[in-house]
Amino acid sequence: MSSFFQRLNAVNAPSIGLGCMNLSHGYGQQVPEQDALRTLDAAFDMGYRHFDTATLYGATANEILLGRALKGKREQVLLASKCGMAIDPTSAKRVIDGRPDTLRRQCDASLKRLQTDHIDVYYLHRLDRQVPIEESVGALGRLVEEGKIGGVGLSEVSATTLRRAVAEYPVDAVQSEYSLWTRNPEIALIDACRETGTALVAFSPLGRGFLAEAVSDPARLPEGDMRRQMPRFSPENFAHNQRLLEGVTRLAETLGVTSAQLALAWVKAQGRDVIPIPGSTSMAHIRDNLAAETLTLDAVTCQQLTAMMTHDQVAGGRYSEAQQADIDTEEFTSTR
To answer: Has keyword Chloroplast (predicted)?
Structure first.
């Protein structure tokens, strides 16, 4: 068992974690700090114990937020963050940098912002194609040995990269987008994770709100919302994808659950080593998501859901060409 699962067990964490990005990054305006703190306090009170952030989110604002929210609760949670991708304060542009000195510097800064002396799992947010993965992972391994981080993580990497990384240093967890409408980990990554004893942490398990019926018209998304650049939310693809979603919502109604709960239960059903981390800015949605912890799907229902949104049915790629250029994960050979 990796230290990631040991830590989850130690804090009695449910199998659903909380992705905290939405509060500071990605979907338009940041949530005001006091509102965000109330949301995080409520999430802890509901039972969430796995909190996920990153240097990138809100140009470090999200880590500062988590540091304040979890003060006095630190030993009761699994705290995860990420390095290797940040907002350059001079250019305000996103920069990927996996050099060992950069990762060490970012870790020290993250520890200060998070008001802690250790981070339970620290992910390389993106593969830096200019730096061998062995060098980046080796640097993270030294941070483990120094007690600054509990375990090494990787994000948006291929099975090949994971295997190379593990040959250098054990990898506790890999984050990859995984949901009913994003099946890319099934190409090779899930198998590689199981071969190497690595947890698969599924981000965007609700399809960036789509599977939770949170997006009815992409044109109404706020300026700066990353989904405006994603092909699946484009006018020519969205209507088609909504028709696919109708089958999921009908099944959810039949079972007496929400579509979000059904989608999360499907991800959980893929294995105990698959940990979804949905995010939201709404306390009601956060509570709704955690209720999926007790929802277990039978094999027939899982098969029904699996067949409703296969990769060749979903219209549009998950990222634009520019976004995809930074991603190392396997892609299906054809997309609608």
So the answer is: no
